[in-house]
User: Fold this.
Amino acid sequence: MTSRIILFTGKGGVGKTTTAAGTATLAARSGRRTLVVSTDAAHSLGDALGMPLGAEPTEVEERLWVHQVDAQRRFERSWGEIQGYLMSVLDAAGVDPITAEELTVVPGAEEVLALLELRMHALSGEWDVIVVDCGPTAETLRLLALPEALGWYMNRVFGVQRRVVKALRPVLTRAAGVPMPEDSVFDAVERLHSDLEQVQQILTEKESTVRLVLTPEAVVVAEARRSLTTLSLYGYRVDGVIANRVFPEGDADAWRQAWVDSQRRVLDEVRQSFAEVPIWVSTYSSGEPVGADGLAAFCREAYDGADPLAVPDGEGPMTITRTETGAELRIALPFAQRQDVDLARHGDELVVTVGSYRRLLALPTALSRHSVTGARVEDGALRVRFRFEQEGRA
Ligand SMILES: Nc1ncnc2c1ncn2[C@@H]1O[C@H](COP(=O)(O)OP(=O)(O)O)[C@@H](O)[C@H]1O
Ligand SMILES: [Mg+2]
Assistant:
């Protein structure tokens, strides 16, 4: 059974936790076994739902469970081995132990662990719906790019190193005094790699989508547009935008009327920018929407009769179509202009760079024996043309 997975992301404070928790409550109340997971270090699910949460999944009400990933504890459990090795290397190199400890806190460990947790829940078969309350956009993008980037790194660095180390371990240990990693370290790294690959597979399935939360302010919308481009680059589907904190219209004073007018202008822009996906509008309430009842009511109003769990149809951001001479790879990159996109091919990999984000795309076997004959960016998509090369031909 595949769980319906919905990730909520957006700029800090726009209402990610509120809408994630509200959507999960609606899901549970419609009969689905639902879990909300938070990957944000600023844990506020407990505050939103109005109850204290521990490190283990907690039942909030019938069918509604919450899990705040305790990154620190998980870190110690699963990264202990790798960290142990790094420490011993630094120790041998004469770095004092306290500094060594700081150095070996692998950046992004929180994210890695949250992803692993998500994988475990997705594979458990226990959940119909998993809602992920993500951190601020930049972190989410890093999180979602991670499985592929880490996989690449691990293949290159650890793959080669393992072979070399096997042969040289006795010599090197004696000569340099640097301990060589034990096989168990490599095993741990390999396990991590395959687990993360699986995470990516789960998150790019049809049943997994990302929802962008924004407030109708120019700066926030600009960031949301960039997120849409980057999410598409990595192959994730965005299935909706929630425009939150919209001031209700009607007998307003001059101050509020100015906000209403300004928000209306930005909302028009949002509707044009995100024309492909539904835009749900939620009003600025007079108080914080908290507690399961408050959150459910808040989100029910925002979704306005739409099914918050509907799986969007249509193709994902990446498609491959056959042509007479080969194939065409299409990656949707909404808003991207020609000058923002850079493309290179390295063996079986296509390196696509958009702004400051890069994807190392392993070409499907069907394409690896093709040569790239051209590429263009237009109408919000990158199209790469491939020509099939006959075996034996230059
Ligand atoms: N539409 C709204 N009306 C009133 N308060 C809101 C609304 N949306 C969010 N809030 C409040 O704003 C604060 C930040 O929301 P939160 O969902 O935690 O944002 P994020 O997770 O994006 O940082 C919370 O106190 C929340 O209750
Ligand atoms: Mg939050």
Remarks:
- The pocket of magnesium ion (ligand 2) is lined by residues 16-17, 40, 44, 133 (CB under 6 Å).
- Residues 102-107 have pLDDT under 50 and may be disordered.
- DSSP finds twelve helices and 15 strands in the chain.
- Residues 268 and 356 are 28 Å apart (CA to CA).
